[in-house]
Amino acid sequence: MKTLSNGDYAVFFIYFIIVSLYGYWIYRRKHNADATSKDYFLAEGSLTWWAIGASLIASNISAEQFIGTSGSAFKMGLAISTYEWMAAATLIIVAIFFIPIYLKNKIFTMPQFLNQRYNGTVAMVMAIFWLLLYIVVNLMSILYLGALAISGISGIDITVCITLLAVFAVFITLGGMKVIGYTDVIQVFVLILGGLVATYLALNLISEKSGTTGVWNGLSIMRKEAAGHFHMIFDKSNPNYMEMPGLSVLIGGMIIVNLNYWGCNQYITQRALGADLKTARAGILFAAFLKLLMPIIVVLPGIAAYLLYQKGMFHQEMMSSKGIMDPNKAYPSLLNLLPTYLKGLSFAALTAAIVASLAGKANSIATIFTLDIYKKAINPEATDKSLVKLGKWSVVVAMALGVIMSLLIGEQLMGEGKQGFQYIQEYTGFVSPGIFAMFILGFFWKKATSNGALFATIGGFCFSVFFKFLPRFANLEWLNQFGFSKLNDKGVYEIPFIDRMGFVFLLCVIGMWIISKIDLAKGVKTNGLEIDAAMFKPSRAFTAGALIVGGIIVALYSFFW
Fold this sequence. Notes:
Structural class: mainly alpha
Pfam family, one: SSF
Family: Belongs to the sodium:solute symporter (SSF) (TC 2.A.21) family.
Shape: globular
Membrane topology: Multi-pass membrane protein
Strand order of the largest sheet: 1-2
Strand content: under 5%
Subcellular location: Membrane
Number of helices: 23
Radius of gyration: 23 Å
Protein name: Sodium/sugar symporter
Oligomer: single chain
Largest sheet: 2 strands, antiparallel
């Protein structure tokens, strides 16, 4: 396997120095000795629209995107792009309907919203849950998958890679949300540039293998010779139907996945919560446009690797330690083809994605622990200065826990031959429907009660577990007639993951409605939010941009249906 040359390392360290110095300059320029906790955690009022949009994308795209999505593209093709293109549509919905509610009610954290809308019990339960989810699932997976990719490219021991990633992320995070937001602008630029270089090289290589030259020729050849990898909507005959079940990727559980992730996720919405509505919406719209472009750098490389694999390349590079072809190695295999310096730049881009995601996640962990647990339940009289100090220490502790778990159990959960992206989706998807039901009814139905919210949280998880293991105890062949089950390779009719999420969401909504009605009959009071319909009205510029995004999405799905 190829490793990095001295020139590649030189490019990487130059990048490291530039980002570090820029982050320090931002910190010194905007640092205020009397900074409030909101200023530290949210960069209140200081992030521009382009910084918000770039930060959203840089924090969203990490190892699980580059490695996991490219691996999924290797296996199933362009259909995995639905996570990107549906996210663009979701961001528009979040900007119009969710962000105004947060800003009007001065919401800075998700547990704060739950406390204000329901009660302290719901907020505390969810705050603790989010901390566990962010550390055990997200922080650990980003660290391990990121280190696995970097180790595969550089040849550096994976333990060293995990440690260095954590140290770099802590360095960025300790500067607060301002440093994260503005350094993310550099991160996302290098990230996209490196991805474009990898895509360009792969398409050129396909052209050369066919006796021609040029990127467009390579794309044309790829569409012709890998035609089965250029469909967005699968029918039941497709072997990947369980991962992407037909129209459900447009009107089913995929909507819940995206709305929960982009609209009810501290880690993501935190970028916009410190800005005014106009700036927040502009930043989110910018992020939506960037999401439309992401398949070029995370999906096309995977499809290109598939075609090159069919032509005899990467057979050794993509072999796991157990002798199994590992799709997760598609993107690192492509990067190993890059010439000196360009390989170093792409290596820096991948590292940038991982570090940006780690830094944003760590800051959200610190925000929730400090503002929603420590200040609420442990020390209500804590000063802003002490909260900022505690937030910095919690970043270090959270990252240390992530490193320890990555080293102890990362390989068992996400080792070679396994789908790290599926690990993340599986574990977060067990609770996403309940959380989203609790939020969406909390937004728009004033009669939703705290007992109903608790049911959605706990019941949603229980329903997810039930549907996951139901095929072991019941024959679901009858669901096949309605398109909600398919015979798997073990001879059992299984419900696709995305459909399962849709079922659980509907059950949570129904359960919340019934419980809330019972509570209201008993005289239970609710804390419904005051909503002014005028606050949902977007500006003409935003409306024009949103229509363009929508039109592009419709065109893409129509063309690649």
